[in-house]
Amino acid sequence: MVIVLAGPGGVGKGTIAGQLVALDPRLWLSRSWSTRTRRPGENPDAYVFVDRAQFDEHERAGGFLERNEFHGNLYGTPRPSVDADRDVLLEIDVNGARQVREQVNDALLLFVDAPDREVQRRRLQGRGDPPERVEARIAEAERERRDAVALDCVFLVNDDLDRVVAEIRQLIDVARKARVAPPR
Ligand code: 5GP
């Protein structure tokens, strides 16, 4: 199964994804490629950091399940190759979620939102995004919410990390059971 964790920047998707994979050995977290430069203090494994030429070459070779340009940088999910008993977790944006839905029609699409704008702003500022980038991303979040509604994503609010992780685990559990249920 493919599980997409989408949502605006600064809602805590990375932390949630980390907890989900730590708690569930069946989940395999995909590592995206990005042409963005690494933020100060950012984990070197956060992305496969590449230049445009490397990204373009991989894309031409059909190496991405989906890709998106975001604020001038390219991001792409490499085509996953995992055992059938593993579920793939993608931490991507809503645009990518739409592309995944087009190719994997039973993907579980989740949209995680911040409790409010101030919390989102503080989180973006806290990780070192420049002020103009913070405001652009807050504005962007409005469009992402509308797109997520149109895509029929399941909406969750990250106001309590343990709770939202538990909710997502429950949704994954239900989706797994539905996928193995015998046809009537
Ligand atoms: P950031 O630069 O803040 O790490 O990520 C910018 C946005 O790109 C975030 O919403 C993040 O979830 C999204 N993103 C990260 N990797 C991918 C990817 O592989 N595909 C798509 N479509 N979006 C991604």
UniProtKB/TrEMBL annotation:
A cellular component term, taken from the record's GO annotations: cytosol
Keywords, in A-Z order: Kinase, Transferase
The protein's name: Unannotated protein
Family, similarity comment: Belongs to the guanylate kinase family.
GO MF term list: GMP kinase activity
Residue ranges occupied by any Guanylate kinase-like domain in the UniProt entry: 1-173
Pfam families: Guanylate_kin (PF00625)
PANTHER family named in the record: GUANYLATE KINASE, GUANYLATE KINASE-RELATED
Matches recorded under InterPro entries: GK/Ca_channel_bsu, Guanylate_kin-like_dom, P-loop_NTPase
